[in-house]
Amino acid sequence: MKKKANAEGEHSIVLQVLKDRRKKILSTGLSVKNELWDENEHCFKTRHPNAMQNNRLLDTLKIKARNIISDFNIDDVDFTLQEFEHRFRFGSKRSKIDLFSFWTSVVNDLEISGRTGYARTNKDTINSLKLFHKKPILYMREINVTFLDKYEVFLRSRGGSNGGISVRMRSLRTIFNLAVRRDLIKQHIYPFHKYKISKLKGKRIKHALNLAEIETFKTLDCGEDIQLINAKNYFLFSFYTRGMNFADMMRLTWSDISNKRITYARAKTQGNFSIKIVPPVKEILDYYNQNRTDTNYVFPILLNDRMTPTQIENRKHKTLGLYNKSLKILAEKAGITKNVTSYVARHSFAMCLREKGVSIDVIGETLGHQSVLTTKAYVREFGAEVLDEAVEVLLW
């Protein structure tokens, strides 16, 4: 029984599970006034009007908890309290796992850990599935190849592209993989053995600017329009820093810059980068150094040094939208018909290096593509000087 009483003077009855000197508190949905609770026997006193019914429920919950622990022990699983909670909340029968409840708990964990961008993607997919399913509960055993095919048709009917549908399906597959790993569902109901997300990979045209277009972009006159000035600077900074993405630029601080180099860890892969500051980058850094804000951030994107993960994600979403709109205006001013977005700077960097004859292996490493087998084979062979030279060829 919890010590703190509610407004009616009743205390919540909870189930406490202890493991490895840690505890998990689970609500029973019952509450009672202090004088009607037997603290020694942990049950409702007989003079409580619903004593028999409530005590029977408590016994059932205790037996359920013991059975779950016993099942884990029989399967020789060194379970965590979180895994116990999932099994307790969603039922000991794996086939009765509600996808929405399980997925929402995962999203909550992502938000607590600060992975707000990933949490947002998962929330969007949950909402999309709820719109398709039209029911508050969706058991994981209900999701089979037919279900996924129909969901795909639903997404296409709402204007979904292969890329967008792939994002939804990969989010769903990740949740299924997590449920399997936590022993919440059995492998035989896993639908992605037959439904292949790889079929959604189309030959997407990756837009990139060539060296001549980059030069045209550099000479654009933005007047006094601060949005256009920032967009131009962000794009060129990304281009000349090996395709640094917007999220990493946003978090870049003045303390990351020393000895004529920029050193940072890429948020997406946690790979460490050390980049020589070439003249175009120095010019941009000098501009923002002269117009410093009250923060330690290089670029005027994050408003202060103490923003929460949610505030940072919201700010990124808003600013990135304005950035991409400004890039379209700049492309039109430059006479560039390609669809220029923030990510085009990264593609342009790679394509321009290739245009200058730099090897694919060096390009792969400058971009941080350590997951590519051909790149991994050369990771230890390229030093910082080789990579610096690879960027500097863009200046000639």
From TrEMBL:
Organism superkingdom: Bacteria
Record InterPro entries: Arm-DNA-bind_5, DNA_brk_join_enz, Integrase-like_cat_sf, Integrase_catalytic, Integrase_recombinase_N, SAM-like_dom, Tyrosine_recombinase_XerCD
Keywords: DNA recombination, DNA-binding
Domain (Tyr recombinase) ranges: 204-392
Keyword DNA-binding set for record: yes
CDD domains recorded: INTN1_C_like (cd01185)
One matching Pfam family: Phage_int_SAM_5
SUPFAM superfamilies for the chain: DNA breaking-rejoining enzymes
PANTHER family: PHAGE INTEGRASE-RELATED (PTHR30349), PROPHAGE INTEGRASE INTD-RELATED (PTHR30349:SF64)
Family listed: Belongs to the 'phage' integrase family.
Protein name: Site-specific integrase
Lineage of origin: Bacteria, Pseudomonadati, Bacteroidota, Flavobacteriia, Flavobacteriales
